[in-house]
Design brief:
With 131 residues, the chain is mostly helical. It contains five helices and no strands. It has one domain. Helix 1 runs antiparallel to helix 2, helix 1 runs antiparallel to helix 3 and helix 1 packs across helix 5. Keywords: Membrane, Transmembrane, Transmembrane helix.
Length: 131
């Protein structure tokens, strides 16, 4: 299974657990906890559909810690949240080599473009002031 497919499965597991929790909380009349649970889950369908790694990283690094602080019992989610972290770390460690090469060539291209722009500005400036 690819990393993205594994991420999709984990996110679906988190969504399933959340929906089950909302159902039980609703049966028990705990409306505020239902709302908090829904707030934790509402971005997951878009993340699952788009599989945008930056969005999933934001969810893992910022939304989950905030959710954990506000939850009375984060236990049902902890295993899936850990799995999510493992897969994201694995993807980042693999991607860091590729991203380093891309950044290097991006900087190189950026320097070339900057030199071209400066040369054009000099030529334009020379043309304007030569008259």
């Amino acid at each position: 299974m690819s990393d993205k497919e594994e991420l999709r499965c984990i996110l679906l597991d988190i969504l399933r657990m959340g929906l089950l929790r909302i159902r039980v909380l609703g049966w028990n009349g705990k409306l505020e906890e239902c709302a908090a649970e829904a707030d934790r889950l509402h971005n997951l369908p878009d993340m699952i559909r788009e599989m945008n790694i930056e969005s999933i990283l934001y969810y893992h690094n910022f939304e989950l810690p905030y959710s954990m602080q506000r939850m009375a019992n984060p236990g049902p989610y902890e295993a899936d949240w850990r799995r999510l972290g493992v897969v994201l770390n694995r993807m980042q460690s693999r991607g860091s080599k590729t991203q380093g090469v891309i950044r290097f060539f991006g900087k190189l291209l950026g320097v070339r473009m900057m030199l071209i722009v400066v040369a054009l500005l000099l030529l334009i400036g020379y043309g304007i002031f030569a008259k």
